[in-house]
Amino acid sequence: MPISVIKAIAATLTLWAASVSADTPLSLATLNMPPLEYQENGVVKGISTDIVNTVFARMGISTDTQLYPFARAIKMVEQQKVDAIFSIVSTPKRQIQLSFSDESLIDDVTSLFVRHDADIEFNGDLSSLTHYRFGALRAAHYGNRWQQALRSGAIEKVEMVSDQRQNILKLAHNRIDIIIGPRLSILHELNILGLQQQIKILPVPVEVVPTYLAFAKDRVPQAIRLQFTEQLRQLKQEELYQQIISSYIKTTPAH
Question: Which range is the signal sequence, renumbered to this chain (predicted)?
Fold first, then answer.
């Protein structure tokens, strides 16, 4: 990166950090998606939360993170009611109103979950599952393969919910046949609910999907996004990055 650009970023960052005081921290929206982000004893924590907090701390920027239903969180950042959102998938539609970091926070795996006694197999072709009832999270993006299956009509029966736990309970009670969603989050929730013996993950994944932090356009200087990207890239080269991940998934059931 040219020295002039680095100096410009540093100058903007200094001014921004000065304006973001303890009284007016950077406002961040996130969702309840453990172990990536969730609230415990009034504190928002999780893999992505700790990564984001570490990066902003290194930038000298204080933050205020609040949990919202996923669709509402997206709407809030698009309407510039908050400064940024995490962890979300980058799509052409979202890029119109949001400014994404150039480095992903964490790559998750979109997977399918079914009841243990279900005779359902997945070979990588979603159209082979066209007759089944799916459960999905409202406004979530599970990768291009899933989006294409929806657009083409290969998948038609989809029930949307605002919380992942709703899907798991609906699957356990035979109200839907398949859950699609992020592997880590659903495995974590199954562990909490004690449903590992009732619900299983299908071995073939749908897609590996990177997730990001995205800023509200015109609300946060682009120099802040660039600095966040650089600091995140540096963190991902350090042992601390893997330590953050391991600290949350050590009790996740093996599959």
Answer: 1-22
Contact (CB, 8 A) for 208 and 182: no
Q: pTM for the whole thing? A: 0.73
pLDDT digits (tens, 9 = 90+) for 76-120: 999 999 999 999 999 999 999 999 999 999 998 999 999 999 999
Give the class (CATH, top level) of 109-208: alpha beta
H helices then E strands: how many in the chain?
A: 9, 12
Q: What is the CATH number of domain 3-106+209-249?
A: 3.40.190.10
Distance CA 105, CA 86 (A): 9
8-state DSSP, 177: S
* Cβ partners under 8 Å of residue 234, min gap 6: none
Nearest-angstrom CA–CA distance, 242 and 112: 25
- Show the 3-state SS of 94-136: HHHHEEECCCCCEEEEEEEEEECCCCCCCCCCHHHHCCCCEEE
